[in-house]
Design goal:
This protein has 376 residues and is α/β, with parallel strands linked by helices. The chain contains 16 helices and 12 strands. The strands form 3 sheets. A 6-stranded parallel beta sheet has the order 9-8-7-10-11-12, with helices on both faces. Strands 2-1-3-4 form a 4-stranded parallel beta sheet, with helices on one face. A two-stranded parallel ribbon has the order 5-6. Strand 11, helix 14 and strand 12 form a beta-alpha-beta unit. Helix 11 crosses helix 15. The longest helix has 20 residues. The radius of gyration is 20 Å and the shape is globular.
Length: 376
């Protein structure tokens, strides 16, 4: 059986990261390939998601102080993430440095990079790292048949990507997650670059519902679900949203906001939720509010009414999906707009064909890229 080795952000204690890694692994195996995830856990990323990050900075110190009261719950969540990573993902031995990757004896037939912001440039994990680990996600440590699936360039500029031109050109197939990333890489390489959906879209709506049903929901009442990865300033805005929505809908809010836990009247804080419990919270919510790419995506996976609260304008990653599925009206910039967006219901029957077409395109790209190994 042909063996595939994936490198991605799979081991963050972050719902979207672990789910996209699992979804890609699951899809590749269903295509008939053997699949492992290269267990590269850069030290800066491990620190970022630890109970009390050690890297310097005033914001981190304040965040650590705020979270002292949630230490037990944060520890419980981290334990659940670690269990998911080790039990649901097929991992190599753990590696933490460029040297670890270079010394390892690699024997995969296909090397696949993607998804998540692995081709971004200025995300915290890269910026705070004591060594530059960006090249690892372009497979600088190994030769062979290489493909990219939905690698996100995030906010990277053309100049940020230039140093990786030679590595990118060694890929037989290249697909990114955003139109802007496609344009940058086409300019850089002169090649045709595909855009595809995040791997979580490769798992169909019915499948996600079946998987979520296997976990008991943490809440036994109707609720609004808020999933946020923003900090203290956004937490204050969320509280305004919660007050307005409670008056409008009469429902309590379940909150998962690990970097700035939200608590107060009408709020059920679930900072201790693990990935499978968060999946269940998405599946059983009456309404969803979020500021994250995967919060938006799982709202769509479960065909939920949702609002995307954006304070600085919609970023490339989210904008691309919203435009593809005619959902740009789901963006809100303040609490009042959140209420209006939630009141304006999505008719998913109107966009099912759009979703199906994009999913099929993404699946066909991935299958073709993997099958191309036979002619390598």
């Amino acid at each position: 059986m042909v063996k595939v080795g994936i490198i991605t952000f799979h081991a963050s204690y972050n719902f979207g990261s672990v789910m996209q890694a699992w979804a890609l692994q699951d899809t590749i195996e269903k295509f008939g390939y053997s699949c492992d995830i290269i267990n590269f856990r850069m030290l800066a990323q491990k620190d970022k998601y630890s109970l009390f990050p050690l890297h310097s900075g005033k914001k981190i110190i304040i965040r650590n102080l705020i979270q002292i009261g949630y230490t037990g719950k944060k520890y419980a969540a981290n334990y659940k993430y670690e269990a998911f990573i080790n039990q649901k993902l097929h991992l190599t031995d753990e590696m933490n440095t460029n040297s670890d990757l270079q010394k390892h004896e690699w024997n995969y037939d296909i090397y696949l990079t993607g998804s998540d912001q692995i081709w971004a440039h200025s995300i915290p994990e890269f910026v705070s790292s004591k060594e530059d680990t960006r090249g690892a996600y372009y497979f600088e440590f190994v030769d062979g048949y290489k493909i990219s699936y939905a690698s996100s360039t995030g906010e990277a500029t053309f100049e940020d990507l230039v140093p990786y031109k030679d590595l990118i050109e060694k890929f037989s197939h290249i697909a990114v997650r955003e139109q802007r990333g496609k344009e940058l890489l086409q300019r850089l390489t002169g090649r045709n670059i595909e855009t595809v959906l995040d791997p979580t879209y490769l798992v169909l709506h019915k499948q996600w519902c079946e998987i979520a049903s296997q976990s008991k929901c943490l809440v036994d009442q109707k609720y609004i679900f808020i999933y946020s990865l923003q900090g203290r300033k956004k937490a204050k805005v969320w509280k305004e949203v919660i007050r307005s929505l409670h008056d409008q809908l009469g429902l309590d809010v379940v909150s998962v906001s690990p970097f700035a836990p939200i608590s107060g009247k009408h709020i059920i804080n679930k900072v201790d939720a693990g990935p499978e419990e968060i999946l269940s919270l998405f599946a059983n919510a009456e309404y969803i509010l979020t500021d994250t790419f995967h919060g938006m995506s799982f709202s769509i996976h479960f065909r939920k009414q949702f609002a995307l609260l954006e304070s600085k304008g919609t970023d490339y990653r989210k904008k691309n999906v919203l435009e593809k599925f005619a959902l740009v009206s789901r963006v809100a910039t303040n609490p009042e707009e959140c209420c209006r967006v939630i009141a304006n219901k999505i008719d998913y029957l109107d966009i099912e064909d759009k979703i199906d077409r994009e999913v099929e395109h993404s699946r066909l790209y991935l299958k073709k890229a993997l099958d191309g190994y036979a002619n390598y």
